[in-house]
Structure formats: structure tokens, C-alpha cells
Amino acid sequence: MGEEYASLRNGNDVRGNALPCGKEEVTLTKKRVVRIAAAFCRWLFERKIFPRIAVGHDSRLTSDELVSWTVEGITGAGYDVILTGLSSTPSMFMLLQDGVAEASVMITASHLPKEKNGLKFFVRSSGLGGEDVKTILNFAAEGLYVSSKKGTVSSENYLPRYAAALVEKVRTATGEREPLKGKRIVVDAGNGVGGFYVDLVLRPLGADPTGSQFSEPDGNFPNHVPNPENAEAMKSISEAVVKYSADFGIIFDTDADRAGAVMKGGAEINRNRLIALTSRILLSEKKGGTIVTDSVTSDGLSTFIAAHGGVHQRFKRGYKNVIDEAKRLESSGIDCPLAIETSGHAALKENYFLDDGAYLVTRLLIALAQEAKKGNDLMSLIA
Asked: Within the chain, where are the H helices?
């Protein structure tokens, strides 16, 4: 029994087959998901965290089913549920900062194939790590955690509030209500969650999003893999930028915790280039910071960061490892404005060290607006 649950741990998340996949059987069954959700409540109760848990999901085919099972497990354990509907993974952490709930569960498997799904857990201080998930799965294997009091279920669509905060950040930084007016910016959401960025962020800032594509949530992912690391996906957004003569292109993964970018003319900004650009922006605001990355970044990136007043520290692969290393350095008195993996997982200190693709590209758009006033484009920052 224990191995059945232990095998569902994938790093810091629970992941498995929610649909049959070739010869592989469904591993995220109703029984297991209910038990895991209830086990999360047991984990929270032991830490005196209660009584509300927000539950959101991405566009996967099995999301509604997993949400219903998660709700069954949570309410059976005596906790109240707040359903947030279609959500980005970062918004499920940010709603905790806004006091909407005390903990949250995101139903997602990020960029993995459509047969996959999973659960990601947050409390107000951070996302849960691998050891926490291991404990929860051990609890689930022991049996169903129940309470004599059944929890309630309510709903709150938090994503518009999350997006409004991004809009306000750009307006505050630029001093303008529509700082992107006259700019054509296209978004490729890959039929995941990121389509919200078009109407809730770009349009209010004055941008023309003509040419944006695949904004309709569709768990079949019929156009391309929703993954900024995927060559086909990057080719798709690059072609859209060229076709519509856009000034900037944005591509999100399924749950919008990662992003890639494309400059005017179709030049891709991902991997080392994305790290270089983000580092340059942050180091121009405050010199001397340490940029923590995974181990596969280039020597040229190290030279670039040093040339702009920063320190490059490589660490072992895995976005949570990189983030945890930045937090460790911060606790020892070393300024770490950015923890970023070449996959596109980027966590800024100013944003709770949350890996948030929408926040990252919002930071890039602020720089885009500021450089445009000087007659420059973003490529000039990393030329």
C-alpha cells in the first residue's frame, strides 16, 4: 500500500496518470486522490493551520474530476473548501497572501502530456517541499483521515484580482496608466491557463494583443506542447511575432508558472538569454546581487552577470533546489534578487521567491516600456 502512494511523488508534487496511457494504468484513482487530500488536512492540522483550503485547477481534461475528489477528501477531514476554478499555479500562492485561505491545492501536471495530472500544495509561507509531500503520502497510505465535522464549499474567482495586481505594478513602475500603448504584444497560452494575460493584463495597459493564439483552455493541447522549452512551441510564438509584426511575444506553460519571450523579429529569449535579461534588469536597480541558477548555465552568462555588477552562483538542478539555495544565502546576509532555472522557472525575492511566469514577463514589460522611452528595445540590454 505504501509504495502505491510513494510512487506518486514527483519532486515537490504529486503526479500520476489520470487517464490510461498506453500500457500504463491510471494511478490517480478516486480512492488515492481522496486520501491524499485528506492527508494534506492531517498535515495542516498537526501544524495548527486551518480552516480554509483553496482548490484551483488548470485546463487538463481530468481537472474537474480531480477537483471533486480533492473536495471530498478535504471536506471529509473537516476543512472548508474555496473553489477558485481555472487558476494559474502562482495565483494559488498569492491568494494566501491576500488572506483568501490558509492553504491551497493546485490541480496540475504543468507541461506534461494530457494523460497526466497531479496536486501541488501551498501554505502561506511557501510551496511544500519533497519531504512534506512524502509525509502526506505516508499519511494517505495509512488510511483515510476523517473528522466528525464536515467542511463547507464556497467559490471565489481569484484570477482577476491576481491579474489586477500585475497591472498595478506596471502602472506604478512606469507612472503611466497605459504604458504599453502603441505596442503590439502577442501571447501564446498553449491552450493552458495563460490566456487570461491578454484581456486582464495587456489590454488594460494599452497593448494591442492582435495575433495572440491558443488562449482557449483545451486539455487536449491540440496546437503544441505548452512548454517554453519545447522547440515547436517556441517556433510557433516566434512565427506569430513575425507574422503580426509584434514588438514582443510571450509564451506560457500550462499553469503559467513558467514563461518564455520573443523579441521583435522573432529572436527567442529563453534559457541563458532569459536569465541574462532578467539579471540585467534587476542588477540595474541594485548592484552586487547574487543570481542563483541551476548548474547547466553557460560561462558566458557568468561573465555577463559579473560585467553588470552581479555574482553568478550555480547550484544543482531542480527549480526548488535553486530557490532554496537563494533563500539560504539570503538568510546568511547575501542579497539574492533572483533564483532561476534554465527551464524558465524564475523566482524573484521581491515576489516571495515564487516561481511565477506571469510576474516574470510583467517585469520584462516594465523594462520594455522604460527602454522604449529611450529609443531602445529589450535586446539592447543583452546585446
From this structure: 2-6, 30-46, 63-76, 89-97, 130-142, 159-174, 196-197, 231-243, 272-285, 299-307, 319-331, 357-373, 379-382
User: CA 60, CA 30: separation in Å to the nearest integer?
Assistant: 16
For 50, other C-beta atoms within 10 Å of its C-beta total 16
Rg (CA), the chain: 21
Which one-letter DSSP state was computed for residue 201? I
- How crowded is residue 236: how many other Cβ atoms within 10 Å of its Cβ? 20
Q: Reduced to 3 states, what is the DSSP secondary structure of residue 241?
A: helix
Neighbours of 2 (CB within 10 A): 11
Residues 6+ apart with CB under 8 A from 367: 281, 378, 381
Cα distance between residue 100 and residue 82, in whole Å: 8
Encoded amino acid at 200, one letter: L
177 contacts 171 by C-beta, under 8 angstroms: yes
Contacts of 151 (CB under 8 A, 6+ apart): 51, 74, 75, 76, 77, 78, 79, 80, 81
Number of Cα atoms under 13 Å in the Cβ half of residue 157: 5
Beta bridge partners of 184: 208
Pairing between β-strand 13-17 and β-strand 116-123 as defined by DSSP bridges: antiparallel
- Per-residue pLDDT 10s for the chain (383 aa) are 688 999 999 999 999 999 998 889 999 999 999 999 999 999 999 999 999 999 999 999 999 999 999 999 999 999 999 999 999 999 999 999 999 999 999 999 999 999 999 999 999 999 999 999 999 999 999 999 999 999 999 999 999 999 999 999 999 999 999 999 999 999 999 999 999 999 999 999 999 999 999 999 999 999 999 999 999 999 999 999 999 999 999 999 999 999 999 999 999 998 999 999 999 999 999 999 999 999 999 999 999 999 999 999 999 998 899 999 999 999 999 999 999 999 989 999 999 999 999 999 999 999 999 999 999 999 999 98
Burial of 49 (0-12, 13-18, 19+ CB in 10 A): middle
> How far is the C-alpha of 172 from the C-alpha of 375, rounded, in Å?
21
